[in-house]
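dumping this here so i dont lose it
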């Protein structure tokens, strides 16, 4: 099983980024997917989740700014991040969960003020 996250980078406050996480080795459409983030010295926090059927849920700090989506044909989950703030700076991780749980490697997002 492999989850390959990409799309991180450096952006100014107010800007946008789109993260992608491509999955292989799992039956993607039955797995729920999630994005988490972890800033240095802090715990890993939930950002957003999406079920195989497309139901979504968001952390309070990102509601209205971030959108999670998935393309089951491409085995990929996305995180569209708009209105980025310096406090969004973190390593972002994708997770696949159903019978088992799998984590991808992080992709760094840095938002400058």
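and the seq i came up w/
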């Amino acid at each position: 099983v492999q989850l390959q996250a990409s799309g991180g980078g450096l952006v100014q406050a107010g800007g946008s980024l789109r993260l992608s996480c491509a999955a292989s080795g799992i039956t993607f459409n039955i797995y729920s997917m999630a994005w988490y983030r972890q800033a240095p010295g802090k715990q890993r926090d939930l950002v957003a989740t999406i079920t195989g059927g497309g139901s979504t849920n968001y952390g309070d700090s990102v509601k209205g700014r971030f959108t999670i989506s998935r393309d089951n044909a491409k085995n990929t989950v996305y995180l569209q991040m708009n209105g980025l703030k310096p406090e969004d700076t973190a390593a972002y991780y994708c997770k696949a969960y159903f019978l088992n749980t799998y984590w991808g490697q992080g992709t760094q997002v840095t938002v400058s003020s």
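DSSP finds no helices and eleven strands in the chain.
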